[in-house]
Structure formats: C-alpha cells, structure tokens
Specification:
The chain has seven helices and two strands. By secondary structure, it is mainly α.
C-alpha cells in the first residue's frame, strides 16, 4: 500500500512502519555529525528528541552505523578530552552529504506519521500499555487454553471495532 506524502515517503514508495528506510539512518547520522561532532549517546538522545519520542535508536543500531560511516571514509571516530569516542564528518563525508543535501534536510526535519503512538495522547498510550501488560500477565499464567485465547481475541476485536466506529464518518473531528 502506498502511503500519502504527508508522512514524508516519496510518492509511490512502499514502506512499513519504520520511520527511516534503508540507508536513511546513515544519512541522518552523517548530517547530525556535520552539525557538530557527537558521541553515540548524544546521537541516540537527539534522534529521540527530533522524532518526539517516536524513535529511539538502540546502541546496537547507532554504533554499527558510526562504524559503517567510518569504514566508508565519511566519518572519523576519535577520543575526546575525556576519552569518550566522538564522531566527526570527513571531507569525503561532507561531499557525500552535499550530494544528498535535500534528502538529508528532509531527514533532519522528519516527524513521525500521525499513526505513531508517540503522537497519541498520554492517556491512550497508558491504556494501550495497560492492555498489553494485562494480556502478558494473563497469558503467562498456566491455563491459557484455546477457549481463553479465543475469548480474549474476540474481546480485542470487538474493542477495535468499537474504536473504528467511533471515528467521524466525514474525516473531521466534529
């Protein structure tokens, strides 16, 4: 299914629920270290802040990305005055970034799509978390037979239907 351009996907491009497609995180990180040299942890927190909490890359994503940028000659990773590793862009990285400036600028300002739970009211997020927690707890206890699973599944489908039916028919919030 093609997603509308309002979520920043190129027209006709198919994407799943990932905020960044293949290779986009590399370009985002390169653009961020071009702003100023950064530690991996700083990149993680800055990406989380820029995406309004919708995406927080793990160290297992950021550090291999930095290593890849270094292997490509786009970044240099060196110890700062405290001994922590900080990445900075190289001339080759700056040239690559210049060649992809429009895409990098879009990535630097990309916001999560409306559907992302990071944009949901905190009461809704808390309720979703409560449902997940209750399901995990109930299904972890012995006795989760086929009847219980069918009952819980039916309840969840009924709730989903009720939520869909509560949506405005004309697309407005009135």
């Amino acid at each position: 299914m093609t997603r509308p351009s309002a979520d920043h996907s190129p027209p006709g491009r198919k994407r799943g629920k990932r905020l960044y497609g293949h290779g986009e995180l590399r370009l985002l990180v390169l653009a961020m270290i071009a702003e100023h040299p950064r530690h991996g942890y700083e990149l993680i927190k800055e990406i989380e802040e820029r995406t309004e909490g919708a995406y927080c890359p793990s160290p297992g994503v950021i550090y291999p990305t930095l290593s890849w940028l270094e292997d490509m000659g786009h970044a240099v990773i060196e110890a700062d005055e405290t001994g922590r590793k900080r990445s900075r862009i190289t001339e080759a990285g700056a040239a690559h970034l210049a060649a992809h400036r429009a895409a990098a600028d879009e990535l630097l300002t990309r916001k999560p799509p409306r559907w992302h739970r990071g944009n949901a009211p905190k009461e809704i997020v808390a309720a979703m978390d409560e449902i997940k927690s209750a399901l995990r707890l109930r299904l972890s206890v012995p006795g989760a037979d086929d009847t219980l699973i069918a009952t819980l599944s039916a309840q969840l489908r009924d709730t989903a239907r009720d939520i869909r039916e509560a949506l405005p028919r004309d697309g407005s919030d009135d």
